[in-house]
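Q: Is it fine to ask for two folds in a single conversation?
A: Yes, each is treated on its own. Send the first.
Q: Here.
A: Result:
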Amino acid sequence: MHAPAALHLDETHAMDAGLALVTSALGAAGLLLVLADADIAGAVAGAVGVLTGLWGQLVSRTRPERFLDVVGIGAAAVAFALGMAYGGINFSG
């Protein structure tokens, strides 16, 4: 019988977990910035969050890290899209 996955202390990877947490924090910060009408800052936080999350997906070794990366990438992508739509791109001259 195997122990639950949360008890496998030898499977913790500090860099991978750090990237996942940074990605989620950037996604949440980007969404909050867009809601606070700081659209360019939200778009930048979202873009950096997407790039960080994609790198985290590439190097992550466990399922919880990848799950947190995907949630963070989704939030960061939405923040980037909303930030660019509401203040980052202006075609009206």
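Q: Second one now.
A: Result:
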Amino acid sequence: MLPTLIVLGLAVVAVILMLGIWNMAKGGSPNRSQTFMRFRVLAQFVVIILVMGALYFAS
């Protein structure tokens, strides 16, 4: 179950990153791009916690 959550989390990070890049590329609101990047950092933090948990429980 944990590996599935990690893959899902990585997909969420990638989608948020693409949304932020797309918004910047089309000249959208800088505030919206900043919000996307903040959500991306939060999602990355969650994925790192999941990976660390998987490593802890695997050993």
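Q: Anything structural to flag on that second result?
A: Two points. The chain has two helices and no strands. Helices lie at 2-25, 30-58.
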